[in-house]
Write a structure and sequence with these properties.
Layout: H1 3-136, H2 146-155
Amino acid sequence: MNINLTLFGQMITFLLFVWFTKQFIWPPVIKALKDRQEKIADGLAAAEKGQVELLEAHEQKARLIKEGKQDASNIILEAKKQADGILDVARQHAREEGHRIIATAHAEIEHMVLQAKDQLRKQVATIALVGAEKVLERTIDVGIHQDLLEKLAQEI
């Protein structure tokens, strides 16, 4: 065997192997590599998009929490204002009711004082009649002397 012929045979075999590989093996491998590269690129883009969306979600969450706290403080402030208003109205009603009760009590006391004065006048008139009877030693008729008794009661 000659080295040249073997070398020439190996070269032909190698060239056939390269042609076969280039024709039938490399296209699917290159396609698979490109598909894989696209999947990786898509995955990286999706990861970046996910990171951006995550940051946006955190910002939105922070904004919503801030708005919620602001709304809650506004609601609490409004409730306090309403409570103060209700208390002021209740105090005003209580004052008015107290003044009304005091006025009613004063009127009732005034009425009772007038009744007591009236009763006292009648009793004084009766005592005066009894005293006059004793002094005059005769009976005084109340019906006849009614005008005199009323005048005496008014003077007392």
